[in-house]
Design a protein that fits this description.
Helix content: over 70%
Low-confidence stretches: none
Number of helices: 7
Number of strands: 0
Largest sheet: none
Radius of gyration: 27 Å
Mean pLDDT: 83
Distance between the termini: 99 Å
Structural class: mainly alpha
Number of domains: 1
Order of helices and strands: HHHHHHH
Length: 198
Amino acid sequence: MQDEINPTQIKLQPRPFQGIERKKPLRAIQSFFRANYRNHISLSAIADNKANIMISVNSILISVLITILSYRNIGETHPGVLLPVIIFLVSGLASLIFAVLAARPKVTRMVKDGQLPDLSKSSIIFFGNFVPLQLEEYEEAMDALFRDGELLYGNMVRDMYYLGQVLDKKYRYLTVSYTLFMVGFIASVLLFILTLFL
């Protein structure tokens, strides 16, 4: 005869963030989220400033070079200057494109129009997810969120994760932009020096 299993003996797999308020002080969790959100916002502002620098520098230099090339047909009178200028124009344009991609706003939407979000899988905190909702639907979702600590922590964690994904993409584009600018600038200057002394 098989022993009957007592339901109290079965250990259920805990859900993410289940009972977290009983184990950790609430103030420590709030400080963690506050510090992380502040760091993400600061890093995003730094990335946008760096992208704006590259956009400004490349735009000015490309405009100046095109103006110089068209002035008195310098390309015809000094053909040796054309190669370094073309290299810099191409690398500067590529650098400018990646800087614009880094600065371009990216809005991800996990909620379809007319459908309430699944709060256990999406983040209602991000504006891209709650804008398609009607006011009553948004209030209903927020009410459910505030009444359930697990949902609240889950939404905040997912929001931070997606903020990190956006930051990762911004910094990847910025790295490519700065690298292209540096390589193009060095190659152009070296070629220009070679054409002067050879």
